Amino acid sequence: MNISVSLDLGSTGTMVRPGVVTLILDGLVGEVSPAGGAADLRASLSDGRPIDSLSWGATPQGDEYGTGPAPAYTGAADGTLLYVTAWSGGARFETTAPIAQTALEISAQPAPVGPLTVGQVVALDTGAAGPGASARIVLLTLDGVDRSATLSGTSWDSAGEAPGLLRYQVEWTNSFGTRLSDVVEVALEAAAFSAAQVPAMAPIWDGLSLEQMDGYAEMVAPENFTSPAAPIADVVVSVLGDATAPDAPLAEDQQAGFSVTVTDTLGNSASFVAAPVTVEYALRAQIVDADIELERNPIAVRGLQTLDFTGSDAPYNGVYSLDLADYVTRPILLDTAPISGIPVIGQALTAPDALAVSEGSDGVESRAYQWYRYDPAIEGPEDRVAIAGADEAVYTVAPGDAGLCLLREETASDSLGTSDAALTAPVEIATTALADTFTAASGTGLEAHLGDTGHGWSLALGSNVEPVVSGDALALNATSGGSVYYLAGGVTFDDVRVSTEVFTGTGGGAAGIVARASGSEDSFGAYLARYNRAIGRVDLYVLVNGTATLLAQSAIVDAEDNATYPLVLECVGDSLNVQWDGITVISRTDTRLTGLGSTGISHYRGATMRLDNFSAEAL
């Protein structure tokens, strides 16, 4: 609207009569905002002359609202007058206009925010109105039931409420009146829990438990779950299918799954179900020689597996554990077999290869060995020392091993790598390399008899009635024929001490012991020390190519009929010594036989004579 004021100007520029010049206000509207002024309001003179100055005031000729082209009457009271004063060419022009009262208007209706979740504290949107208006919730119902008592200002706590339809209305008030908003409707829903990693079964194989399944720990952790209403308070896991507990190992073809019930601090809860799956196999195995042939399920890459070979042949007929995480990166040696062979000097020892498993493209491709020794009197296996040069599967016991423990270390290699070392159980090497107490069933022939150290006996020269075990001694039983020589098998010596006990019996004959024996029949060679009963002396012979030569004979020794006396032959280098009943009776040197040879016994007839407690040990 426009307001025009006409002024009649006199010579002094004062208003003298109306109707001559008009001060016009353009841009007036019926509703001027009281809070921000009227930026579009403009003043002009009706005859077009320029205005030299302009003021806007709350009082006549005042400039409380500014002197610019438009007024700025922030804070002006509704209904008051706006005074306008213009000067042009020394003449003053004035007019007034009312500042209109402003009606209350809602500029923005409340916006429904949702859906809402049970348990939330909700800040209800009130929209916007102005100027100077305040809002309050005047209606709040849930499925038609009043819930305004649970309001705090414009906030509503939905804890303990059931899902339903929430309706509310806002009342706006200022100095000019009140206005009601539209009724807002929003759904209140049950708390929708979420999981960062949704519980689900991963492939699982026999021997694993649910707890060992990939991702299980993360899927059941409280931090995996979120409630929109409140922090997580509790997580409960239940097993499904054939599973009996989260930590119970599973078997092939079982069904296994789990569910997780999650509860927040407001009591909201939800369940997540990992549907059961079939437990797969991890390994299928059989032993071939000392290797295990495995068929591994590609999904099985970790966990402990039990391999049960109780029905297999010895030595690997036990139950073994296999760590798949190791198995897929290198060979694994599961077990070692005992060392075999007579644990005496000169005897060859060995052991079956360690029980190996390999994921390599060609299985186990090679094995490496190392023999060790330690003194059991003061050390244990952890103190073992490698034997120089003893890096084959077989080791021949050396004289320096007497009284010590030996054991073998083994590693296996394949296309993936090399196993950890596996050690056999140790064996102790006897200080007496060969021993025989001739303990067996009476009537057992010497060649069918095994000595205490596991050695056998064999005829090397001569022929006669075979000696037999009788009364835990060796009865010679011969009444005719020449000398015979029986050798203890398996062990050879160069420097050696051979001993036996001679039962003299009655009548004639001779019996004794041999050392450094080799060959047979016409190539037979040995040193022989024997008690010659016919003359009561001890003889020392050397045999070369089956022919015996007397090296020395003792004086007559003390020997009674049917009595037992120890006889000893020592060979050290070219030095030969013979003892009877603990006394040295012969000492000679001879260089014809200085190498390794067997030990044994010899007799010439001697039907009533017996030998017992034979032994041989390295010197």
Automatic annotation (TrEMBL):
According to UniProt, the name of this protein is Uncharacterized protein
Provenance organism: Poseidonocella sedimentorum
